[in-house]
Amino acid sequence: MHVRFPHFVWLTLCCALLTIGCAKGCQSTQTPPRTQGKLPSFELVNQDGQAFGSQDLKGKPYVASFFFTSCVTICPKILGAMSSLQTRFAHEKLDIQLVSLTVDPDTDTPEKLKAAGQKMGADFTKWTFLTGTKDQLKEVIVGGFKTFVGP
């Protein structure tokens, strides 16, 4: 004996299976990445000579980069990538801060940082350039971001 189901029964059954499959497939099974450490509290100096630190970034997503103004190899590419991010974030109306920290505080004064930012078309309300003492920067970059800084 062969039982024939009306088309709407098959359609309903297919929709139900598709919905269940999508619901299972749409559930996130990924676990968040393991925390590698915590960035220490810091207070440095921005391109305007004003204090700027971790409290200014608290609760905000941000992208950090490391460079120095006299670098002619990779640093222009790093700043170019940051500039592209600034443009993309603005276009997509994303409230994401950009922070570029110098690794050469003896050379990179706030004035030099400001000139570097202006050269890259930085919107200083969204992209901050930071300097400080060697010890402060080492604590933040090496100790916090776990990034090597050479001589």
Helices and strands, with pairings:
Blueprint: H1 7-26, E1 43-46, E2 51-53, H2 54-57, E3 62-67, H3 75-91, E4 97-102, H4 110-119, E5 127-131, H5 134-144
Parallel strand pairs: 3-4, 4-5
Antiparallel strand pairs: 1-2, 1-5
Description:
The protein has 151 residues and is α/β, with parallel strands linked by helices. The protein contains five helices and five strands; from the N terminus they run H-E-E-H-E-H-E-H-E-H. The chain has a domain at 43-144: Glutaredoxin. The protein is 41% helix and 16% strand. It is globular and about 45 Å long. The termini are far apart.
Features:
151 residues, alpha/beta, Glutaredoxin, five-stranded mixed β-sheet, 5 helices, globular
In the sheet with the most strands, the strands line up as: 2-1-5-4-3
H/E order of the elements? HEEHEHEHEH
Percent of residues in helices: 40-55%
Helix tally? 5
CATH top level of the domain at 43-144 is: Alpha Beta
Rough outline: globular
Q: CATH superfamily assignment of the domain at 43-144?
A: Glutaredoxin
Average residue-wise pLDDT? 84
Given as residue ranges, the uncertain stretches (5+ residues, pLDDT < 50) are 5-25
Count of beta strands? 5
The biggest beta sheet reads: 5 strands, mixed
CATH architecture term of the domain at 43-144? 3-Layer(aba) Sandwich
Distance between the termini: 85 Å
Strand content: 15-25%
